[in-house]
Amino acid sequence: MTTTGKVIKCRAAVAWEVGKSLSVEEVEVAPPKAREVRVKIVATGICCTDDHVLRGCFPNTEFPLIPGHEGAGIVESIGEGVTSVQPGDKVIPLCLPQCGECGFCLNPDSNYCKKAHFDETQNVMPDKTSRFTCKGKQLHHFLWVSTFAEYTVMPECAVAKIDAAAPLDKVCLLGCGFPTGYGAAINTAKVKPGSTCAVFGLGGVGLSAVMGCKAAGASRIIAVDINKGKFAKAKELGATDCVSPLDFKKPIQEVLTEMTGYGVDYSFEAIGHKDTLIAALASCNMSTGICVMAGELDSGSTISFDPMLLLCGRAWRGTLLGGWKMRDSIPKLVSSYLEKKFNLDLLITHTLPIAEVNKGFELLRTGKSIRSVLLF
Ligand code: PAD
Ligand code: ZN
Questions:
Q1: pLDDT tens, residue by residue, 125-153
Q2: How remote is the CA of residue 271 from the centroid of ligand 1, in Å?
Q3: DSSP 291-315
Q4: Pocket of ligand 1 (CB under 6 A)
Q5: Which of 148, 219, 142, 221 has its CA nearest to residue 181?
Q6: CA–CA separation, 212 vs 214, rounded Å?
Q7: 3-state percent breakdown (helix, strand, coil) of the chain, nearest 5
Q8: Buried residues in 143-163 as b, exposed as e (16+ CB within 10 A)
């Protein structure tokens, strides 16, 4: 019996209030409207950004909502006018859309899209209504993708068709964590062969940056984390040195500068703290050093820093999803994964049923997991 055009009842992890754990509920998911796609999510990873949302620290967060933005699934039905995917296609929802029409999408050097959440509210669909209800209440979407729902609706510009051979329980990480870190090295920093790198924070994003530095041919990759439990995996993925700031009396930027002479060529911050953002910046050399900020501070935070850090040429750049134009690039990254060009599987430390979503967050917060993948 087809579900096309009908409301689907299914499970979803709902955040009812700020600061509360998620509850797995039965929700109703309305059919996709014009230029929208309804997807059956098969697997979804838990990213640190989902934790920001639960704490109410992500911009435009409105409760109740269904979080999740690192998923993979199969198209269930399509709305009027959709041409790029068909029911049955394997897809990855994109938490950064690519409309293909705005000035940024038309600019080959940009992966930003004017439909991204900084410009357009993504806690409801583009027509400003929600497709989710639960217990008679409307639920908000998250980044237009809400992958913690067994069925979810997104605009066509926020979904990419991928190879039918892709294992969804692995490639879901290509929705956020992996492309962010890997692309921070390859696209944003443009790491050169033989260079030195430092990566602050060895979660899913930081370890992917280690992989990107290695793939780009860096000769030295210094991994920095206060949790030494992360060091073995960092070495396995390409780190040449691992240091904990807690082992030194002096600031870590001085330690890294002494280790490399002038500071590293490229540094990456994948934590999202004010002090480590400044430490990462000061760790790259003062003339040609490039520091890439991937870590996200709580919405509305500000930082003060000494502008002399930048005066001699050192550059500070941000990265959104690693600089990839998402609809163009994510399918290509899936193909590269299938060709075994990088080892995504090593980032997945836990696989849990959706019912254990809160355990997954606990594992992330206590530093025991890299990525937990939730299965419906
Ligand atoms: P995670 O929590 O898995 O990893 C963070 C790591 O930082 C952990 O290993 C911690 O032990 C380590 N850490 C914490 N404090 C310190 C410290 N003071 N010094 C050294 N290490 C420390 O997070 P994640 O990898 O999922 O995400 C990392 C950040 O990237 C986070 O801020 C997230 O919001 C951001 C992000 N940005 C984008 C983007 O597009 N820019 C995309 C996805 C995630
Ligand atoms: Zn994420």
A1: 999 999 999 999 999 999 999 999 999 99
A2: 3
A3: EEE---PPTT------THHHHTS-E
A4: 47-49, 52, 176-177, 180, 200-206, 224-227, 230, 245, 270-273, 276, 294-296, 319-321, 364, 367
A5: 221
A6: 5
A7: 30, 25, 45
A8: bbbbbbbbbbbbbbbbbbbbe
- For 78, the token pair is 């399509």
Atom of ligand 1 nearest to the CA of 275: 18
| Nearest residue by C-alpha to atom 44 in ligand 1 | 49
Q: What is the structure's pLDDT at 31?
A: 98
| Ligand 1 centre distance from Cα of residue 205 (Å) | 7
Chunked mean pLDDT (size 10), the chain, 376 residues: 94 97 98 98 96 90 96 98 98 98 97 95 96 98 97 98 98 98 98 98 98 98 98 98 98 98 98 97 98 93 94 98 98 98 96 98 96 97
Query: Whole-angstrom distance between the N-terminal and C-terminal Cα of the chain?
Result: 20
pLDDT of residue 300: 87
Pair 226, 237: CB distance under 8 Å: no
pLDDT at 299: 85
On the 0-12 / 13-18 / 19+ scale of CB atoms within 10 A, 120 is middle
Let me know the angle formed at the C-alpha of 262 by 223 and 230, rounded to the nearest 5 degrees: 5
How many angstroms is it from 178 CA to the middle of ligand 2?
Answer: 9
pTM of the model: 0.97
Nearest ligand, measured from the Cα of 180: 1
What's the gap in Å between 85 CA and the centre of ligand 2? 23
Tokens of 321: 């999803």
SS3 290: strand
- Can you tell me which residue has the tokens 């051979």? 165
User: Which pLDDT does position 288 carry in this prediction?
Assistant: 98
